[in-house]
Amino acid sequence: MKRRDILKGIGAIGIGSAIPMQMALSARKNGTTAPPACLLTPAETEGPYYFNANLVRQDVTEGKPGIPLRLRLTVVNQDCVPIPNALVDIWHCDATGVYSGYSGQGSNGNVSTVGQTFIRGIQVTDSAGQVEFHTIYPGWYPGRVTHIHIKVNLSSTTAVTSQLYFPENISSQAYATSEYSAHGQSPLTNSSDSIARNDANRLLLNVSADGNGYLATHTIGISAVASVNHSVRETGGQFSMQQNFPNPFSRATTITFSLLQSSKVELTVFDVEGKPVARLLDERMGSGEHKIDWDISSGARVAAGNYLCQLTVRNDRGEFRQTQVVTVR
User: Fold this and answer.
1) Which of 4, 15, 38, 96 gives a 20 to 30 Å CA spacing to 319?
2) Order of all β-strands in the sheet with 276-285
3) pTM higher than 0.70, yes or no?
């Protein structure tokens, strides 16, 4: 079956919490009243294949083959108000069911992708609470139905981790195309998957045809009081990074961080598409507190908007990264 043929008959598919969420958002935009209808996104396991890659980018494919997929996510609170400046982290397997960064994969357990970073990325939500990633339709692997992992951080200590699922008829049609047919059809359904079956309807993506690929959308409901501290795990306890001050800023701001031990340190600022804007630091530094200034009053002009400041620390314990949003006004 050719991809262009299966896409002809696909319309938008919407099931679960995304429908009342979008209705409430539309009502608010049009000035009408609507009761709060944005269900909080259920938390689900991050699974065994997460690592804190912290790759700021929109296109996460790194050349991996597959049907193009635009993933558009909207982050809102329980009152359906969009949440800007949230960090959204996604990761999923490639068309053959393999994740980047891990060994022991594949049907025989002999596939290793250690050191690779394909199909992982983070972005920051805009004023409408939205991000969009360019990826491929995920494959499947034994024991799991088709899914995408997400992690949404509202601050350095607040995160919601979950998974998003696909309509089964769309997956069946996708897996009949040449890019996926060698791997075959998934033997599981959303209702038979041990993880998906509990919340699949509330976590089902809306999928529609999009040129030669698909557009998948979902609204993620976040409660500001549902916080989990992930900072120690993600940084390996090797450093702590404070929010820059002032933030927002118009001329200069200070980034403060503390190192547990002597380390090689990089501090880079990216725009929301993952393009480097400024390299603030690239050197070995001793343990203790450090303060780095970012002055935008000289040199190339930096436009107003949101940027991602990423701190990378390397030492004998490994490599660790943390990213936070900084705002230029």
Assistant:
1) 96
2) 276-285, 263-270, 305-315, 318-328
3) no
Q: Which residues contact 32 (CB under 8 A, 6 or more apart)?
A: none
Q: Give the phi and the psi of residue 276 in degrees, each rounded to 5.
A: -65, 135
CA angle 88, 90, 93 (to 5 degrees): 175
Which runs of consecutive H residues, i.e. helices, occur in 57-206?
A: 168-174
Are residues 234 and 322 in contact, defined by beta-carbon separation less than 8 angstroms?
yes
Write the DSSP assignment of 14-77 as a string of letters: --TTHHHHHHHHHHHHTT-------PPPPP----TT------B-SB--TT--S-EEEEEEEEEE
Neighbour-count burial for 92-106, b at 16+ CB within 10 Å, e otherwise: bbbbbbbbbbbeebe
Picking from 175, 153, 172, the residue whose alpha carbon sits closest to that of residue 228 is 153
| Sequence ranges of the chain with CATH classification 2.60.130.10 | 3-222
Q: 74-83, 153-162, 280-289, 307-316: lowest mean pLDDT where?
A: 153-162
- At residue 149, the pLDDT reads 97
| Tokens 């970012």, residue located | 294
The 10s digit of each residue's pLDDT in 135-144 is 999 999 999 9
Q: What's the CATH class of domain 3-222? A: mainly beta
Does the pLDDT of residue 66 top 90, yes or no?
yes
Q: Is residue 38 over pLDDT 90?
A: no
Question: How many other C-beta atoms are found inside a 10 Å radius of the C-beta of residue 76?
Answer: 26
Tokens of 207: 């999928």
pLDDT of residue 39: 76
Q: Where, residue-wise, is CATH 2.60.40.2550 in the chain?
A: 236-328
Please state, in angstroms and rounded to a whole number, the distance separating the CA atoms of residues 49 and 70. 22
